[in-house]
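In the lab's daily routine, each protein ends up as an entry in a very long ledger. A line of letters takes care of the sequence, but it says nothing directly about the fold. The three-dimensional part falls to structure tokens, numbers that each stand for a local backbone shape. The outcome of that step, for a single protein, is printed below.
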Amino acid sequence: MTRKFQQLNALRELTELKSEISRAKLSAHRAEIDEIAAVMREVTAARATIAAETPTQAAADDRYAIWAAKRNEVLQSDLAMAMARAQPVKEMAAKDEARSQVIKQLIKDRKKRP
């Protein structure tokens, strides 16, 4: 095994590790996004199930609706920020994967040569 071939294998292993780390980070970002979306769905569902029977209950429902609307705005903002944080990680994961494929191809080509 030549030194160049050893270097390519080491580079491949390093690139695969970087790719795995990027996928793990992306998975964490996706979990955060899914969690925020689930809370948004819960708030929306809770708003839809409220039915006032008395004037006091109607006033409480109105206050809850105002709170829920504000909460939904905050959650939408959190969701947008989480998606923005995930974008560079998604791009890095794609680059790492492409780099890994190129290195694998170089190794394969190197093995074919006599």
Remarks:
- The CA atoms of residues 55 and 61 lie 10 Å apart.
